[in-house]
Amino acid sequence: MFLRVKDINIHVLIEGPPGATPLVLLHSLGTNAHIWDPQVAELSRSFRVIRPDLRGHGLTEATDGPYSMALLADDLASLLAALQVKKAHIAGISIGGMIAQAFAANHQDQVASLILCDTAMAIPPAENWTLRAAKVRAEGIGVIQEAVIANWVTAGFINAPETAGLRAMLLRTPAESYAAACEAIAAADLSASTATLKIPTLVLVGSEDKPTPVAFAQALHAAIAGSSLVIIEGAAHIPSVEKPAEITNAIVSFLRPSTTDYFEDGMNVRKQVLGEAHVARATANITDLDRDFQAFITRTAWGSVWTRPGLDRRTRSLLTIAMLASLGHEEELKLHLRASKNTGATPADIAEVLMQVAVYGGVPAANSAFRTAKEIFKEIYP
Known about the structure:
The protein is an alpha/beta fold.
C-alpha cells in the first residue's frame, strides 16, 4: 500500500493478523523492504509485520537531500501515526538499525523492543561516507556496486540468486537518495541517546560483517543495559538474506521466549484477538463464582494453545469458528466472529468454513451459523 506521509509518498508492506502486536522491519542502505522476505512467513503468524521502503528507496518517493537520522526517524514516527500504531517492536538492519535507535530515543513509550541487526551507534570515518556520496552523485550508483556487494555478503554467497536480487535493489536506488542517506550516516552519532534506552533489545551481527563488525555490535550491546547479543556465524552485512533461518530463529526466540507465565501470555493474546474493550468488560464482570474458571481459560486456552507457533492466528480463528458452529455454541460463535476482524479471517474465509461445516457438521448447524454471521457482519462491517 501507499500512504502520503509528510512530504513523501511511502510504500509499505503489511502482513499478519490485524489485531496482533505490530513488528516494524526497516531495511538497509541501498536495498528495500524485500530483504526481510525470508522472515515474513514465520513472523506474520503472530505479529502484524510492517515493512516500509525508506525515503528514496524501493517504491517510496525520492526527495533531494539533505537527509538526517532525525528526518528518517520522523518519517517512521509519521508513518506509524498514519497507521494508528501506538506501540511496536522495531527491527532494523544497518541504517535501518540506526533509524530504530533514533526513533526509540524520542519515542521510548512506543517501542516494545528493539532488534538491531548489523548496525552501530556511529559508523566512522565520516569522510568515507561523504566521499561515497560525492562519487555516486558524480558517476552514478553503478560505480560502487562491486565494492558494496562484497561488503553485503560473503565471498561464497556472491553468485547466489539472492545476491543478484540485492544488486538489483542497489542499482534501482536513485543516486541522490543514496548519497543523501550516506551523508545522514556520516553525521550520525547516537552514542549518547542510545545509552539512555531502557528497552528490551536484541543485537544481531554477522561474524563476517565488515561495515559494522562484531566490535561495533559489542559496543552497542554494552551501551544498552540488559540487551542480548547474538553473532550469526558465516554471515556478512545482510544476514536476513544470507542466513535467513538463523536470523528468523533469533528474532522468534527473542520475541516469543519460552515462558511459564501462561496467564500473562494468555491475557495478551486474548486482548489482541477479542479486543481490549471486550476483555476489560469480561474482567470487570468476574465474581468469586467464576474467578478460577476465568483464570483457567485465560491460562489454558489463550496462554497454552493460542500462543503456540504451529498455526497462524487466522487459521486458529477459522478452526475455532468451525468448531463452535458445528457444536451450536452461538454465544461463543458470535464472540469469535467479531474477533475475526482482528485475526485476518475475512467474511469470504468464514463463508467457506461454514460450507465445510454444512458437509461435516450438518446443514442445520451451518444454516444457524450463517444466520449468526450475517448478523455479526452487519455490526462490524457497517
